[in-house]
Amino acid sequence: MSLIELRNVSKEYRNTHALRGIDLVVSRGEWMNIVGPSGSGKSTLLNIIGGLDSPTSGEVSIDSVDISRLPEDDMAVLRREKIGFIFQQSHLIPYLTAVENVMLAQYFHSMAEEKEAADALSRVGLGHRLEHRPSQMSGGEQQRVCIARALINNPEILLADEPTGNLDRENTRLILELLDKLHSEEGFTIVLVTHDPFVAQWGRRVLTMEDGRIKCDESICRL
Amino acid sequence: MSQFVVSDALLAGFRETARGGILYLVFLSYASLTQRKYLLAPFFLGISVAFLTGLSAPYITALLPLKGAVGNLISGSFALFFIFSCAALLQSSELPLFEPFRLIRISDFFYRIATLFLAVLFFLPEATGTGFAAAETALMREGAFVVYFSLAAGAAAGGILIFPLGRLTFVRKAGEVFDVPQILLLCAILKLFGSGMKGIEQITLIPSVQAGLMKFFHDFVHQNFVLFMVPDHMLLRTTAWNFIGIFFGANFALFVSLLLLLSVPLFFLYRKLLREPVVPAVSDAPATGAVIRKLRHAVLSERRKKAAPVIFFVFLIVTSWYVRGGQTSPRLYNPAPKPLVADNGLVRILISDPTMDLKDGRIHKFSLAHQGKNIRILVVRKPDSRFSVCLDACEICPPEGYGQKEDLLVCIYCNTPIPVRTLGRPGGCNPIPLEAASDNSFISIKLDELLKKTALVNAGKSGEPGR
Predict the structure, then answer these.
(1) Which residues of A touch B293 (CB under 8 A)?
(2) DSSP A40
(3) Are strands A157-161 and A189-193 parallel, antiparallel or unpaired?
């Protein structure tokens, strides 16, 4: 059953074609990694799936809702209820503690609830770091706070743009194990952008982008 | 009913439309948001009935008795709206006691009838007051065309000012914070701050509501202490009186009246804002933390919205009470009694006395020396143009008499305020009413009546001298 569906999606920035006629279906519960060289359109594709950017042409559906022409308010509701984002930079609020950063996401979704936020941090192994500020945590720990923040509102889709780009191998493994656990045990649909072959191999499906086109869809290639 | 001039007619028309317009805008928003636009028809029918009845009352013999009752109708309708809103607030405060009532399915027909009734109740008293004042002025001063044209012009001005507000987004969404209890409370607020006892002369009910509540409290204390708790011994009685006096200090009754007005709204706010919400059961989605949180947020948000008009009401009441409480009280007007003599078993008071204007709305005192007793009589012309004739004493306090402060009589002994318009009621702290006849020249009281009623005065029973 498809959760994300793109039909002939193109994106142009002035004279630059970032995406060219992308057709893509991602099923519910799937983990798909998008790889490709810099400038191939990976992040643009992720941003369009997440409603952070809009296509120049084509249609994007999330859970059968066409988001290409959704009003901004409805788009905000969809983003906060169905999608969790993890970026390369943690984008944590520096003067808030770990638990407060997670509670902030709760607040914008509905209302803050400290115990639930603390439980979420415990799930990513940061139960002992609740009251620490981002500057008092390592890069890997910060990224785990981001995962807790992304998951706190029970989204159906987790979109990650180079989530391990700033991490060493050990921390990268920790993050990927965490995502793997969430995917296999809790059924999250994950779309992850990376240029790291080590990270790419964790996915169940790998989409290779080049010059704004899908060069290879590995699950299809394997067929 | 006082006469009113063109400017008053303009103001009356303006005020009626402004009050009605505010209620209409809120009601329209509520009806639109709750898919109850079918209630607009009975709402307008109620307005039509109220204004047709009110404005035609002076010309229909059967409705003439309404003239004397306008003041009571206006304050009574405020009291009814306030009581209705309190009942509805209690009902919606999620008390287990009222749980069975929530299961009752109320039909659309009931809502239509209730809307019609409440619209008539809201608009009829003021429309009647305005109708009588307008008719009287049209007859005696200005002519019907000028008066009714001024009324219509005032109403049109009110409409021009109020109705365009309906285009504002926050006005169109006002219905989000209103439900039945809040709309009833809004009606009470509009009555309290925008009604007049005489159509136009007094544009707020606050003084009379304050006085009424204080009097209610005072009577309650008096009746209980005097009838049940004060031993029938002169010394104890005096001590008890001094003790009771604490309850009638300058501000005590005012605070009690505040408490009476605010107890239900504050209880509602406590239940809505301070209690943990009951989250409805989830059936069609997994009860994850986010889903439950969202439901909790929805419940809390709804509670906060619905509490807003009640908070506004509490704020208005406390502010207006504080402002009024802070005003310096004018000295009591207490004229020296003019001596009277009994002639042929009859005591007569001259109405057209060149030394005093008995129709000026102020109290006038007279005294009669009879068999060693000095009997004081109090006469005042009430807002409905009738004379009220009473003894200058009540059945409870030592007979020190009454002074006047604005439209209140105040007991000199215990400070009880008595609204002038309620004079004539027997018992309690009211001045003891006397049966009297009046024509254009004299007010006549039978000596027997005077002596009979004098026996009711407290001093006769307790022997406590007037202080």
Answers:
(1) 106, 109-111, 113, 116
(2) S
(3) parallel
Sorted by where each starts, the structural domains of chain A and their CATH numbers stand as 30-53+75-222 (3.40.50.300)
Within B92-107, where are the H helices? 99-102
With 0.90 as the threshold, say if the pTM is over it. no
Closest Cα of chain B to A190: distance in Å? Answer: 19
pLDDT reading at B169 higher than 80:
yes
The answer on B133 and B46 residing in a single domain is: yes
pLDDT, tens digit (0-9, with 9 covering 90-100), for A79-88: 988 999 998 8
DSSP lists the bridge partners of residue B410 as B403, B417
* Same-domain pairing of B171 and B303: no
Helix and strand element counts for chain A (H, E): 8, 10
Question: pLDDT digit string (tens) for A94-146?
Answer: 999 999 999 999 999 888 999 999 999 998 888 999 999 999 999 889 988 99
Residues of chain A with C-beta less than 8 angstroms from the C-beta of B303: none
For residue B21, is it within any domain? yes
Query: Torsion-angle region of residue B463: left (phi > 0), alpha (psi -120 to 50) or beta?
Result: left
Q: Residue A154 and residue B296: Cβ atoms within 8 Å?
A: no
- Which residues fall within 8 angstroms of residue B346, CB to CB, at 6 or more apart? B444, B445, B446, B447
The alpha-carbon gap from B302 to the nearest alpha carbon of chain A, in Å, equals 13
Could you tell me if B24 and B160 lie in one domain? yes
- Chain B positions touching A119 (Cβ under 8 A) are 289
Say if CB B21 and CB B14 are below 8 A apart.
Answer: no
Nearest residue, CB atoms, B297 vs list A81, A111, A154: A111
Instruction: Answer yes or no: is B333 within a domain.
Output: no
Residues B152, B234 within the same domain = no
**B390: Cβ–Cβ under 8 A, 6 or more apart, which residues?**
B377, B378, B379, B423, B424, B430, B431, B432, B433, B434
pLDDT at B316 (0 to 100): 86
CA angle B356, B357, B363 (to 5 degrees): 90
Q: Starting from the edge strand earliest in sequence, which strands make up the sheet with B364-370, in order?
A: B338-340, B364-370, B373-381, B387-391
**B82 and B117 assigned to the same domain:** yes
Cβ neighbours of residue B297 under 8 Å, at least 6 residues apart? A110, A111
Domain range holding B287? 209-316+318-326
The structural domain count of chain B equals: 3
Q: Is the pLDDT of residue B240 over 80?
A: no
DSSP SS3 for A37: coil
Q: For residue A40, which amino acid is it?
A: S
- Give the model's pLDDT for residue B247: 63
Nearest CA in chain B to A151: B290
The last residue of a domain, from among B150, B185, B204: B204
Pairing verdict, β B436-438 and B442-446: antiparallel
Tell me the per-residue pLDDT of B324-381, one tens digit each, with 9 for 90 and over. Answer: 665 545 577 888 888 888 888 888 888 877 777 788 888 899 988 888 888 899 999 8
pLDDT given at position B175: 87
Q: Within an 8 Å CB–CB cutoff, is residue A56 touching chain B? A: no
Q: Look at residues B204, B234, B262 and tell me which one is the last residue of a structural domain.
A: B204
Q: Is the same domain home to B51 and B130?
A: yes
The answer to whether residues B23 and B156 belong to one domain is yes
